[in-house]
Amino acid sequence: MGTLGFWRLAQADPDWIAAVDPDGTEHRAGDLLARANRLVHGLRELGLRNGDGICGLVPNGADGLVLYLAALQAGWYYTPINWHLTGPEIGYIVADSEARAFFVHERHAEEGLRGAAESGIAPDRVFAFGDVAGARPVAELTEGRPATTPEDRTAGATMHYTSGTTGKPKGVRRPLSGLDPDDAAELMTFLLTLFGITPGKENVHLVTSPNYHTAVTQFGGTALHMGHTLVYMDKWDAEETLRLCEKHRVTNSHMVPTHFKRLLALPDEVKAKYDLSSLRWMIHAAAPCPVPVKWAMFEWWGDCIYEYYAATEGGGTIATPEGWKKYPGTVGTAWPISELLIVDENLEPVPVGTPGTIYMKMLGVAFEYKGDRAKTEAARLRDHFTVGDVGYLNEEGFLFLCDRKADMIISGGANIYPAEIENELMVHPKVGDVAVFGIPDDEWGEQIKAVIEPAPGVVPSPELAAEILDSLRGRLAKMKWPRSIDFIAEMPREPNGKLLKRKLRDPYWEGHDRAI
């Protein structure tokens, strides 16, 4: 141990450009270190202790990075919050995570302040980046505080919220390691070395997606601890991605298949305009990538495309360019520290080539859904856990995904759970019954469809559909709204009342390969 970890690297080379904001502002490592240290001193004066949590509602860039770097050296949990959420959804996470401080960026002030009020957090613990009436400027925490290394440094962790299948999201919380923060960061770099990624200041990591996603924080944070410069994007754009790759000589990034589809759709002359020779490890995940799309990316970018399958809860697989080309469509083989188990309905292992529920385990890594022991235990099989996906292994141990977790919708790489949307739609007085599921979408993978049985005496119409959708305003993030509503006279239900969702869903998937 001893050469990696942001804090060590920043002390050794304070002039290293560690981060570049979406507007092009460069941040020296020494300045970021000083900001993170001052924040630790300020929050400790506020009474924060080892094991406490903080939340941030901040866009991609240095402000969120400072929160992350402060928490990870002070023994705190840091929860970055999805900025598409509405006030009540934000408030739930701030309250549930038991945050002792909440940071809101001026861009997200309106919903952020609604969330703060909803959560019950003391108003003097709500801090603002920028100008937010009703929150304390972050400067009040940091000004006059020393930039020196805090005493008693110990590794913190991120605690991301994973959308719960039954509605409310759950925080995935791991026990704190008690390690020195730099040693813990160096252990984290194992994840990137699986892909062959090397440490060094010549490397540049492009952050293409919002930092509230687990993988984005993990990959970006780990790249930083290896000495890579982080280049942040604000809103993803295909040509801008190519421009940044050329300008900053990007070597690695983390993407989703939706990004690939949009990149491939650029005119040939635009694609040819940019020098992408620096790309070495372009990693993708979060949704199955159609085989033709991935072949096209290999033809354009060469053998720098890696894929993995994993979950916030831990464990996973990796598909190298060679492995994927040997078995197109695979999501790869288990990580060295991970194990896969495919079981049938009776939780018995299935033979090679037979689909079953995928269970994973990561050696030496425990987690729990915060405050929900029952949910944690329900997902476990001895020391393996599942997120409910279905797949099979071939004779060489390569994993293929067959179908999604029972009903989860994956749209543009984001997991969307129908139950939460159904619960909100059911509240409408003109809705008698409702089912929400994913239907094919060429760009996003899946889009959200709602099928509604109107309440007795209510006549279906486009106006009714618009009225029902509008009732979600302020209650449910826009990205969770159904893209369209179809009406049905009567829902197909079993005698015991169980909804036959497949019956509703199948006609939309006709002619599509559902088993991606």
From TrEMBL:
Residue span of region Disordered: 143-175
UniProt domain AMP-dependent synthetase/ligase: residue ranges: 7-369
InterPro entries: AMP-bd_C (IPR025110), AMP-bd_C_sf (IPR045851), AMP-binding_CS (IPR020845), AMP-dep_synth/lig_dom (IPR000873), ANL_N_sf (IPR042099)
Residues in AMP-binding enzyme C-terminal domain copies: 420-498
UniProt keyword terms in alphabetical order: Ligase
Family according to the record: Belongs to the ATP-dependent AMP-binding enzyme family.
Record's protein name: Acyl-CoA synthetase
